[in-house]
Amino acid sequence: MTKSFSLKKYKDYLYITPAVLFVTVFFISSILYALRLSFFEWDGFSEMTFVGFDNYLKLFKDKNFLTSLMNTIIWVASSLILSLALPLLFAILITKSSWSGGFKNIFYFPSALSATVGGLLMTSILSIYGLPKIVGMLGRPDLVRDWLAIPYVNTFVMIVSGIWQGLGLNMLLFISGIKSIDSSPIEAAQIEGAGTIQLYTKVIFPLMKNTIVVVLLMSLVNSFKVFDNIWIMTKGGPYRTSETLALTMYEESFIRNDFGRGAAVAIVLTIIVVFVSYFNIRNSFKED
Amino acid sequence: MKLKRIAALLLSAAVAVGALAGCGNSGGGSTQSSTTEDTSTDAEDTGSEAADAGSEDADAGEESTDAGEAVAEAGTVEFWNDKMANTEQTHLDAIFGEVKKVSGYTIDMVPYPDTASYQTAMQQTIRDEKAPGLFTWWSGPQLQTLVENGLVEDLTDVWNNYIFDEGVSQGVADAFTFDGKVYAAPWSVLYNVVFYNKTVFEQYGIEEPETFDDFLAVCETLKSNGVTPIALKSDSWAGFIWFQALLAAKDVELYKGVCDGSIKYTDPRIVEVMEIWKDMLDKDYFSLPIDWADVRAGFSNGEVAMMLEPHVEFTGMRNDYGMVEGEDIDSFVVPSMDGGKRTIFFEAAPLCVASASGQKEDALKVLETWYKPDVQNAFHAQSGYTNTSQVEVESVAVQKILDETADADNYQLVLRFYESTPDKLRDFVLDELMKFQLKNSTVEEMLNTIQAEADATFGN
Questions:
Q1: Contact present, B97 and B53 (Cβ < 8 Å)
Q2: Between chains, do A254 and B149 touch, taking CB under 8 Å as contact?
Q3: CB contact under 8 A, B236 and A151
Q4: Where are the alpha helices (DSSP H) in B207-312?
Q5: Best label site of A30, A115, A149, B342, fewest CB within 10 Å?
Q6: Under DSSP, is residue A180 helix (H, G, I), strand (E, B) or coil?
Q7: What is the ipTM score, two decimals?
């Protein structure tokens, strides 16, 4: 009796042990190693030299890092606004449409592509023999240039490209959120004379809160770590003007072989993501 | 129901086998990442196929050799690189089959498709006995790092006894020399020349320029006929291409001076050259930096007339756009501004021997025959590389470039900027040059900014 009680007590822990071990070995140890590395100067081959907080101090004096930080903020802000607002709007319209299945497929299609393929596709479309050429033929020859090679403008071009790819998934999540809402509060509100806007802002959106929080968090984290699209389309250029923190981390570590500096960028990025996610989750579920 | 159980059982067995296989691969004390292991495994398969094919070729070669001497099977040497992941197996067989014929060694190639994973794999293994006998690397500061840490073998004796004899130039050896010792052999030597679209030149009655003024006149003629004279590519590293070409056209010592810090970027002579470049940019002799695919497309359809690229681009333009060298496309070297020697910039990728490798002695033996004509002819046929003066080149256009590299009276070979200046400064300069080419900074702003960084680098 005691034996079976004891087994039952530990059985739950045994089930999650493989997952815990996996996360500990492959994720937590990597984070700790990166943290340690960020206090050293190391090119991958020479002896590691302890430099204390030098890598961090230099980062905040480096204009490339500050540009990268600003680009990351732009990506996050744009993603939060556009990746939430557009899919939500589309979800509302599509649920009311008689051809919702077709629309769902059309909008979801770009999400089925990998970020790399999507990036390559957009690179071709935006090259001077693609969309700019057409715009030129329509009377704007000054726009016949490689849009991805225009500093700072290219960041916005890539954000639009990222939204094109991410819109479908968020939209599907919102559609499923809308469909899972209990219809009685909506009917009650309609009987009480609520208008369309009131219906959505006072009834439907609050009832979709959990879905909105999930989409918000996914978009937030994805925009912080955006890499593939930028790497394929501009490699962070020209002259490092379209880098985000994830790209700067890779560039410093693997292109410039400054692993300490790259690790410092990684730690800064991790702290920002954890901080933002934590407060977001906490505030979102406070009332619950 | 039964079917479902059987399917579930089979799937479970497959997952278990996969997991065990994965564990098995990571054994043996290797510290490689899983990506590396996968690549290695694939490469081993590829390598053994190449070995088999090579073995067949070797047999055939032994039968047909005039000397009638069969080279005995000598062993296997691993060759790691990040440059041949996309090379077709038949091409690999042709190259390494020749290596086996002349050396007796089977080359077990381990190709990495990604530079970052390749560098990581090398970092993890280079101090170990299991390090590859042969591997490719990058010249300049990156090779210097390996040398300073005692990780690569001194190949001076191999050069003196074998490589120079096969017609590899002293300039290439200099690119791999540190403190008087040569630490690598050339995997590839590429000469940078100005390619021009022959059809476009003929259409407007343009000849290859003899002087720098001729060169400017060519640009003007093309521009006035609605053709973009020269295309710039937008790759982050590509900013130096015309910077070095124009500096060396003025005076190659100016170029060497800024590379080693003995001449300031703000020197009046440098300013003068940059003003010439600025003038050319303002006159739209250059395109704005554009995607490399667009450069090639524009060049092939005649919207762009010239591009400055490594000589193997002949092969690329032939394969991808059907442009035949000598007929549709040809090349020249940027003329000197004072009528002196023209400068041909070259880049050389090093082939190194890992000092800790258990295959070190075998790898050194392989290098003794690596530059034999048969091997290098096979390299040239498959890749366009021309590493020695004895390579049999069918293309008249390529031969013209090789003749120019050997014509010391009229041409000089100089290592390109990318490998000639400290890497941190180099990266900074590249960004500033790209900014300048995009017309987002003035000559004065650019040179002052670069000099401030150069002062920090060279301790001025």
A1: yes
A2: no
A3: no
A4: 212-224, 240-250, 252-260, 268-282, 292-301
A5: A30
A6: coil
A7: 0.83
Assign 3-class secondary structure to A206-230.
Answer: HHCHHHHHHHHHHHHHHHHCCCHHH
Mean pLDDT of B382-404: 88
Give the residue from chain A lying closest to B290, CA to CA: A146
- Collapsing DSSP to helix, strand or coil, B383 comes out as helix
Tell me the HSE value of B52 on the side-chain side, using a 13 A CA sphere: 6
* pLDDT tens-place string over residues B120-177: 899 999 999 999 999 999 998 889 999 999 999 999 999 999 999 998 988 899 999 9
B205, B377 contact by CB (below 8 A): no
- Closest-CA residue in chain A for B425? A256
d(CA A82, CA B414): 52
Q: Which amino acid is at B326?
A: G
Instruction: Work out the average pLDDT over B345-359.
Output: 95
- Backbone φ and ψ of B167, nearest 5°: 95, 30
Which residue shows structure tokens 């999400």?
Answer: A111
Taking the C-alpha atoms of residue B313 and residue B397, their distance in angstroms, rounded to an integer, is: 12
HSE-up (13 A, CA, CB side) for residue A66: 6
- Of A216-225, A249-258, A261-270, the range with the lowest mean pLDDT is A216-225
User: Can you give the pLDDT at residue A3?
Assistant: 55
Q: How far apart are CA B214 and CA B305, in angstroms?
A: 15
> Is residue B82 less than 8 Å (CB to CB) from chain A?
no
Residues of chain B contacting A237 with CB distance shorter than 8 Å: 234-236, 434
Which residues of chain B lie closer than 8 angstroms to A235, CB-CB?
Answer: 235-236
Using DSSP, state whether A241 is helix, strand or coil: coil
Test the B interface: residue of A58, A128, A227 with most B CBs within 10 Å: A128
Q: Which chain B residues touch A43 with a CB distance below 8 Å?
A: 145
Task: Report whether pLDDT(B434) > 90.
Answer: yes
CA distance B449 to chain A (A): 13
User: CB contact, 8 Å: B119 with chain A?
Assistant: yes
Of A43, A146, A236, the CB nearest to B290: A146
Average pLDDT over residues A120-125: 91
Q: Provide the b/e sequence for A138-173 (b: ≥16 CB within 10 Å).
A: eeeeeebbbbbbbbeebbebbbebbbbbbbbbbbbb
DSSP A150: S
pLDDT of residue B13: 55
Helices of type H across A97-140: 100-112, 115-126, 131-137
Residue that has been written with the tokens 């020749």 in this structure: B98
